[in-house]
Amino acid sequence: MISTKPRVFVAGSTGMVGSAICRRLESENYPVIKHPGRKVDLRNQLTVYELLDGIRPQWVFLAAARVGGIFANSAFPAEFIYDNLMMQSNVMHACYELKVEKMLFLGSSCIYPRSAPQPMKEEYLLTGPLEPTNKPYAVAKIAGIVMAQAYRRQYGANFISVTPSNLYGPFDNFDLKSSHVLPALLRKTHEAKVSNAEHVQIWGTGSVLREFLHVDDLADACAFLMKNYDEMEIVNIGSGYDISVLDLAKLIKEVVGFEGELRFKSDMPDGVQQKLLDISKITALGWRPSIGMRAGLESTYEWYLKNIGHCRNS
Ligand SMILES: NC(=O)c1ccc[n+]([C@@H]2O[C@H](COP(=O)([O-])OP(=O)(O)OC[C@H]3O[C@@H](n4cnc5c(N)ncnc54)[C@H](OP(=O)(O)O)[C@@H]3O)[C@@H](O)[C@H]2O)c1
Prior knowledge:
Layout: E1 8-11, H1 16-26, E2 32-34, H2 45-55, E3 59-62, H3 70-75, H4 77-97, E4 102-106, H5 135-155, E5 159-164, E6 166-168, H6 181-194, E7 199-203, E8 209-214, H7 215-228, E9 235-237, E10 242-244, H8 245-256, E11 261-265, E12 274-275, H9 280-285, H10 293-306
Parallel strand pairs: 1-2, 1-3, 3-4, 4-5, 5-9, 6-8, 7-11, 8-12
Antiparallel strand pairs: 8-10
Helix pairs in contact: 1-7, 2-4, 4-5, 6-8, 8-10
This protein binds NADP nicotinamide-adenine-dinucleotide phosphate.
């Protein structure tokens, strides 16, 4: 039977967010065309045009990006700005040229000023200086948001942009050199348990507050907005609450079943004290997260254990 639902292309479907969006849409029987990641390099304009011309999708989710934690952002700032600017510009421009009906661009909460009031509202974008450690990445993401808005204004393209908080879940990056705080903690705690170590060492004081959203909630929100939102302004997607790194480490210790000690290396930098998104806009539109932190961590750890030899640098 021919589907009456829009044909969807998910750029970056080998990644954590892209694969979650595919799972979410496939559960509703959308015809989803996947993208084999870097093997089809989206930094090349001709490659992108030919790829999308061959697929002729009606919806595009732009979840391909160069992503990483503080170490990777500091070590490879040029790659973070170049790769992201190229990929997103090529995909968005091809969507415009090929008259794609709707495109969703994934931004990130690091687009907000370093000293933005908490929780961070959508209107704080471009109101102050950025956090220096990931500025090239944040500037690329801001350029993507502004590009989507410009294409809407000049060409009437139905491009929307979202701003997710820190994400975690299946297909996360557990490589300690490039991962974010949560997968890094999960892996370190697991390895400490397996090696019967006395302690896990954690960077910083543990006092900073961070917000985390399970990637399946994010995918659900993206599907919701694709169906229900057609405006130029960005939309925050988060869990609506934050947790200290200390409490996160304690929760992970329980989920993993590690009996040793948590030791904080407090001479290492903590980053900003709090990062929490204001999610009142998306909740007013009718969407809410549904996966609690403990349940989300338990299923992520289960996934990690099953995929330990296959996930990135495991
Ligand atoms: N992770 C988070 O906590 C978080 C938070 C907020 C926003 N986001 C946003 O969500 C989006 C997806 O993030 P993610 O966590 O899913 O990242 P990810 O797991 O690292 O996935 C990135 C995807 O992009 C692909 N990719 C990278 N370079 C490419 C290239 N040159 N050509 C083609 N494909 C390329 C990767 O392919 P390979 O598999 O071949 O590497 C992979 O499919 C990003 O825009 C990110 O900014 C993520």
